[in-house]
Design a protein that fits this description.
alpha/beta; Rossmann fold; 2 domains; 7-stranded parallel beta sheet; 6-stranded parallel beta sheet; 42% helix; 15% strand
Length: 370
């Protein structure tokens, strides 16, 4: 088989979005490990941020904006690298290029719920996302839920969209969590949320449930630990605990390195994930792989990912969240069942599977172009 040259947007390896960085940093080594006649070339970005085995083409002149990079710089880099196709791994892709583009869209929350993104220029981002989706030769996404959402949002046939579910890094659940101790501001028992603090994450519901759970557990030191970048709601969440007279009940860590995250999963009573909208929800799989019980909302892609291996709850019912938190803390049999079931479920989601599906899409798109 002739070697396939794929140019991947190199800026994704240093993306401000942690989920995008994890996607490319896990997918690319998995693709290379397949041993297929495949060469991956990073187009632009920082050369020293690329995984081993990936060559790099530096950026040439382009307008000094992300839009300028994607529309002008990325196609020029692809032409210089003589690639067979471009993989744009995060929402935006060249509208015109000499070779076809495979575009990954992780979710379309921007389009389906613009009320969650009240930024002055959000309309421009949404317009460019839509144009990118329609210009792409093929789209990859993380779940069947997102496949249907993309088709509905952009008027694209589902035949042009392939589901390639994500996986947890092998470092989660390997029994070697370091450092051995929790961050100093975290004490047990605690429930954990991983991910950016954003309106769509619906964290107010779980805080109300947490406060009720603390009252039922009588003088409990139970807290909610938030590991993720604050996107504008953190102060409001902290104020809820302060108004209840227990400011220590909400602990904000911000973004944490993977080794700290592994310890948090290891020691948490549960991952709480009350989100209203997810294209996949990678922390769900990471938690299950780590043996952490999962309490999550019955919404969007979450049931598709968790299956029957977690407790699924109404995202608008704080009392049910309180019930579930109390039960997972006080019922050892439930914890053991959720741990075992979660580990088995997480094994279904792995980067080898993601890379196999992704490579198949590359090959089909390249064959159509030939």
């Amino acid at each position: 088989m002739t070697q396939l040259r794929v140019g991947i947007d190199g800026r994704a390896f240093t993306s401000p979005a942690a989920g995008v960085r994890r996607y490319v940093s896990e997918l690319v080594p998995a693709l290379l490990a397949r041993g297929e006649p495949l060469e991956l070339i990073a187009l632009g970005g920082l050369a020293d941020s690329m995984p081993r085995g990936v060559s790099h083409v530096p950026e040439s002149w382009h307008p000094p904006t992300n839009l300028g990079w994607v529309t002008i710089g990325l196609p020029r880099a692809a032409r210089r690298a003589a690639v067979d196709l471009i993989h744009a791994p995060a929402y935006t892709a060249p509208l015109y290029a000499a070779v076809p583009t495979v575009l990954t869209i992780h979710d379309v929350s921007y389009e389906r719920h613009p009320e969650w993104y009240p930024y002055r220029r959000d309309w421009l981002r949404r317009t460019f996302y839509r144009a990118s989706a329609r210009a792409a030769a093929h789209i990859l996404t993380d779940s069947e839920f997102s496949r249907g959402e993309i088709a509905a949002a952009y008027g694209i046939s589902t035949d042009r969209i392939t589901v390639a579910p994500l996986g947890a890094s092998k470092s989660f659940g390997d029994g070697d969590a370091r450092p051995a101790s929790l961050p100093p501001e975290v004490t047990m028992p605690f429930v954990l949320h991983v991910g950016d603090l954003h309106e769509r994450r619906n964290l107010a519901t779980v805080i109300r449930g947490l406060m009720e759970a603390r009252r039922r557990l009588a003088s409990s030191s139970l807290s909610l630990v938030l590991a993720g970048v604050d996107r504008g709601v953190g102060d409001r969440l902290a104020a809820m605990a302060e108004d209840d007279g227990v400011p220590e009940a909400v602990v904000r860590l911000g973004a944490v390195p993977e080794e700290t995250l592994r310890v948090l999963y290891r020691d948490a009573a549960a991952l709480v994930y009350p989100s209203r909208y997810e294209g996949f929800g990678l922390p769900l799989v990471e938690a299950m792989a780590s043996g952490t019980p999962v309490l999550a909302s019955r919404a969007a892609s979450i049931p598709e990912v968790v299956g029957e291996s977690g407790v699924l709850l109404d995202p608008d019912d704080p009392r049910r969240w309180a019930d579930a938190i109390v039960q997972v803390i006080t019922d050892p049999a439930l914890r053991a069942r959720l741990r075992a079931s979660g580990v088995a479920r997480a094994a279904m989601f792995n980067w080898d599977r993601t890379s196999r599906i992704t490579l198949d899409v590359y090959q089909r798109v390249a064959m159509r172009q030939a």
